[in-house]
Amino acid sequence: xxxxxxxxxxxxxxxxxxxxxxxxxxxxxxxxxxxxxxxxxxxxxxxxxxxxxxxxxxxxxxxxxxxxxxxxxxxxxxxxxxxxxxxxxxxxxxxxxxxxxxxxxxxxxxxxxxxxxxxxxxxxxxxxxxxxxxxxxxxxxxxxxxxxxxxxxxxxxxxxxxxxxxxxxxxxxxxxxxxxxxxxxxxxxxxxxxxxxxxxxxxxxxxxxxxxxxxxxxxxxxxxxxxxxxxxxxxxxxxxxxxxxxxxxxxxxxxxxxxxxxxxxxxxxxxxxxxxxxxxxxxxxxxxxxxxxxxxxxxxxxxxxxxxxxxxxxxxxxxxxxxxxxxxxxxxxxxxxxxxxxxxxxxxxxxxxxxxxxxxxx
Length: 362
Ligand code: ADP
Ligand code: MG
Prior knowledge:
InterPro entries: AAA+_ATPase, ABC_transporter-like_ATP-bd, ABC_transporter-like_CS, ABC_transpr_FbpC, ABC_transpr_MalK/UgpC-like, Mo/tungstate-bd_C_term_dom, NA-bd_OB-fold, P-loop_NTPase. Pfam families: ABC_tran (PF00005), TOBE_2 (PF08402). It comes from Liquorilactobacillus mali KCTC 3596 = DSM 20444. GO terms for molecular function: ABC-type ferric iron transporter activity; ATP binding; ATP hydrolysis activity. The chain has helices at residues 45-52, 95-105, 110-123, 139-153, 169-186, 197-203, 221-226, 231-236, 266-271; strands spanning 5-16, 19-30, 34-38, 60-65, 68-69, 80-83, 157-161, 189-194, 206-211, 214-219, 243-250, 253-256, 259-263, 277-282, 287-290, 299-308, 313-319, 323-329, 339-344, 350-353. The radius of gyration is 25 Å and the shape is elongated. The longest helix is centred in the middle third of the chain and has 18 residues, at 169-186. Helix content is 25%, strand content 35%. The strands form 4 sheets. A 6-stranded mixed β-sheet has the order 6-7-8-3-9-10, sandwiched between helices. The protein has a 5-stranded antiparallel β-sheet with strand order 13-12-11-14-20. Strand 12 (253-256) and strand 13 form a beta hairpin. By secondary structure, the protein is an alpha+beta fold. The structure holds adenosine-5'-diphosphate (ADP) and magnesium ion. Adenosine-5'-diphosphate is lined by residues 16, 21, 39, 41-47.
């Protein structure tokens, strides 16, 4: 990835009639970067991608591609490929013709066209379907054709809108690896939209988390997971979801239902808390579960359910105040009904403002 900014959104908004879909989007993508946009359905991901592709204009604000206002770049010189969420295949062209079309338009030589197309057909398991029309394909097959059509163009900027959502799990992993390999080989700038957090974490150099038409956080997968900027981001990433508890701060101690869960740390001293009410976040894999009480911070719980995933076990613990939390552990010896003790990995505890839900340490 170079340091050059290739794509820039400055205060972009988008309204449909009177509804404000994109509230204010600011974004800089570097040349060769793999940026993932992740957010719930309806948050404005496709709309943003369509604006970047030049298919729709922003209501206000501007989009710069290589420093030029995108509305002033003709579609021919635009050098952007897009894989559409709804495939947008030409219904009267075969799979092969669909894949070949844009290469013909851009006057790529016949030999080169054939070489690229054979490789793509092979990669996406489409060789057997090359002469079929889109109407004769399953949803997953159509999606693979749409993906292939974007890939063969080898454009400078590659936009993908949920390109793997309808592909079977096994083939999806292969297609994901293929997209990654393609990126490592060609260093295209990629903006990739998904609502699948695992896909986002696996692919993105950075992830932009979008909600309500606003970027909530844009950062590396590591920072998004471990230092989320607010409770929305913390809860949106990670399965099972991060546990949240209402806690109070009193004289160097964090209390949950009058029991201490963290005490006298440098962190708590630094925070200089304005309010004594906080929201504590702890990921299930950072909950420690044991049979005996061995530490002052161990609190009693009862095992409600155990789900064994083979590689790890997921416990639901009933804790004081009739609340429950989830714990992920390996080699669990616990069964439902067991009386146990739990505590938190202290340095993994996240603290959020009770009112505005912002991470107090970001
Ligand atoms: P996402 O891709 O994140 O699921 P979209 O960008 O497709 O979300 O849509 C965001 C919101 O904008 C949705 O509420 C959708 O109904 C609305 N929307 C999208 N396109 C149009 C349009 N052409 N006219 C009116 N509303 C639209
Ligand atoms: Mg969409």
